[in-house]
TrEMBL record:
Protein name: Arsenite efflux ATP-binding protein ArsA
CDD domains in the cross-refs: ArsA
Stored NCBIfam families: GET3_arsA_TRC40
Record's keyword annotation contains Phosphoprotein: no
Coiled coil: none
Keywords: ATP-binding, Nucleotide-binding
Length: 646
């Protein structure tokens, strides 16, 4: 059912927004929170996106601790500091974890803390969400509106409670041996604080699961825009949400273009019509709320308030366009040439940016350009929500696929999860072989050790799959002698995490390796040990390659919108801090001047952000890509884009 407004029951206490980056989920979350506060509910607006944008959207400061939002009664906001929540967790429970490990005797005391915190790199965010849950349970707020990270990240976050359960089960197993011994030799086992800890955490995880699946209290609202890539990603998201049993009844279809007498506006509308039909068909079980494409950003309390009114009031008849005034300014034109020569001698080119800025199109066009210059080129996607196939309009998947008959251009959407599963399976098979060798020997040690050693593989850190993908990339570059490999990466927050992961994976592998060596008497676990040794070597290579300026280059992709400008700055800072060479910034979707009222308003606003970009990134080579009156999809469109390189 297509609906013209969102229904927000007053008894809802937890409203969660998610969607592909750049679709306006933060705007919708902020507007919803304003609406709830305005109708008298004490409202907390929270963000768990590692690349927070609440402050940008409200155009007001938002802290890492809860604080009132200036000028709005009943409204409070927080950008959850996930790493700090994790620190708190370690402070509170670190000693208990050490004690549990000590009793299990599988690890040295020093290893254990690392091992467990490394096993749950999303633990920080989970702790952040649990803090919010505590606030709801204590009835501190009537409603919490949550702005989450882009799709791929959110899917992972929602699987964390299950991961945490697994983790607690292994801890519990570690204690089992001692409990058994105590009951055999002392006649009984008296539970102590270690048991309490496991019980306490397990009950918190259950409470979170209950909250997330409670139809009366919780609602998940995906935000989508009428573009093929957003549609495909949202399909995956909705499937995950449904599987998790999280209540989902409505979705926001944002930025629906209306009919105007202008080639750009008409082109945009024509582009949307098929996708809108597909959205209607694929999400027919959801109530779909259409919101209009606007010529300006929805930013700041007054514009957000009008937007909220439009979002929830079925009788709204006002003019959203009129809500914002646009500052006009003119800037020097930026050169149109895209970075070509700078890349030609590179071995790896990483393309990064916020979701929705056209990263994949830029990656695809870069590939076409380099291949047309005679370079054997592979485009390698590590985004768990792959969109390379969508971009080329063909099916690529988990195998190297030729993308052009005339030039040497190949694509690969790596199935990192499968690589990880194969590694796990290898390990479990070997563990079984080892313990089958002990058959006939008696003793509780063997039985308990077997179980713990088998289960411990489930503590593999989420994200190790992506590191394995990077290792695979290095291997491919050696084996298949590509001249250049282009990395199409996941959105910002995720990308930064992935680049930091080799460090984390390394620590984890070392700790795990020690454990495996303890059991590696004779030839047992030899294959696992070899595999891990190879992985450790691979991780070292990934680390040294990424920071080598002769081999690796980074292209940042952005669009001229205020919120994205802010995020681009954060991204480029992180990239430089990690030591990755980056000098090129591509500004995508720049509206060319034309006669249309709507387009002109868009253009005026964009020009002011272009000026901002130029002021901020003085040491970058900036180039711009004009907005096309159609989506850039398929080899013909991409080739047109590739002509801008040189
Ligand atoms: Zn127009």
């Amino acid at each position: 059912m297509t609906n013209n407004c969102l229904t927000l029951r007053k008894n809802l206490t937890f409203i969660i927004f998610s969607g592909k980056g750049g679709v306006g989920k933060t705007t919708c979350a902020c507007a919803t929170a304003l609406h709830c506060a305005k109708r008298g509910q004490k409202t907390l607006l929270a963000s768990t996106d590692p690349a927070h944008s609440l402050a940008d959207s409200l155009d007001l400061p938002v802290g890492r601790a809860i604080g009132p939002v200036d000028g709005v009664d009943n409204l409070y906001a927080i950008e959850v500091d996930a790493p700090r929540s994790l620190e708190q967790f370690k402070q509170d429970y670190g000693n208990i974890l050490k004690e549990i490990a000590n009793r299990g005797t599988y690890f040295d005391r020093d290893d254990i803390n690392d091992f467990f915190s490394l096993s749950l790199p999303g633990l920080d965010e989970l702790m952040g969400i649990m803090t919010l849950m505590d606030l709801l349970e204590s009835r501190e707020y009537d409603v919490i509106v949550l702005d989450t990270a882009p799709t791929g990240h959110t899917i992972r976050l929602l699987s964390l409670p299950d991961h945490m359960r697994e983790w607690l089960r292994v801890l519990d197993l570690m204690l089992e041996k001692r409990r058994y011994m105590a009951s055999v030799f002392a006649g009984r086992y008296v539970p102590d604080y270690t048991d309490d800890f496991i019980k306490h955490m397990a009950s918190k995880v259950s409470a979170l699961k209950n909250l997330l699946t409670d139809h009366t209290r919780t609602q998940f609202i995906p935000v989508i825009i009428p573009e093929a890539m957003s549609l495909n990603e949202t399909e995956k998201l909705v499937k995950t949400i449904k599987n998790q049993g999280i209540p989902l009844t409505q979705m926001i279809v944002n930025r629906v273009a209306s009919d105007r007498k202008c080639a750009f506006c008409q082109g945009r509308r024509a582009d949307q019509i098929n996708t809108l039909r597909e959205i209607d068909y694929k999400f027919k079980m959801l109530s779909r709320v259409h919101l209009p494409l606007l010529p300006h950003e929805v930013r700041g309390i007054s514009v957000l308030t009008v937007f909220a009114e439009r979002m929830v009031n079925p009788d709204y008849r006002g003019m959203l366009d009129a809500a914002a005034t646009v500052q006009t300014s003119t800037v020097m034109p930026i050169q149109a040439r895209l970075p070509g020569k700078e890349l030609i001698e590179k071995k790896y080119v990483i393309i990064g940016g916020k979701g929705g800025v056209g990263k994949t199109s830029v990656a695809a066009a870069t590939g076409l350009y380099l291949a047309s210059q005679g370079k054997k080129t592979l485009i390698f996607s590590t985004d768990p929500a792959h969109s390379l196939s969508d971009s080329f309009g063909c099916s690529i998947g988990n195998q190297i696929t030729s993308l052009s008959g005339s030039i040497q251009l190949y694509g690969l959407e790596i199935d990192a999860q499968r690589m990880l599963d194969e590694f796990k399976q290898q390990y479990v098979e070997e563990i079984n072989e080892v313990f089958n060798g002990f058959l006939g020997e008696s003793g509780v040690d063997v039985a308990f050790d077997r179980e713990v050693m088998t289960e411990i593989i489930s503590l593999i850190p989420p994200g190790l799959d992506e590191v394995m993908a990077l290792i695979k990339l290095m291997e491919l570059s050696d084996e298949k002698d590509y001249d250049v490999i282009i990395l199409d990466t996941a959105p910002t927050g995720h990308l930064i995490r992935m680049l930091e992961l080799p460090e984390l994976a390394m620590k984890w592998l070392h700790t795990f390796f020690k454990l495996v060596l303890k059991y590696q008497n004779g030839d047992s676990l030899q294959k696992t040990a070899d595999l891990m040794f190879e992985m450790i070597r691979g991780v070292r290579k990934v680390q040294s390659t990424l920071v080598d300026p002769d081999h690796t280059g980074f292209i940042g992709v952005t669009v001229p919108e205020a919120m994205i400008v802010e995020e681009t700055e954060k991204l480029l800072e992180s990239i430089q801090r990690l030591g990755v060479n980056s000098r090129c910034l591509v500004v995508n979707m720049v509206t060319p001047p034309n006669q249309c009222y709507f387009c002109n308003k868009v253009q005026a606003q964009q020009q002011s952000y272009m000026a901002d970009l130029r002021a901020r990134f003085t040491n970058y080579q900036m180039s711009e890509i004009p907005l096309f009156p159609h989506q850039v999809r398929g080899i013909d469109n991409l080739t047109e884009l590739a002509r801008l390189f040189g």
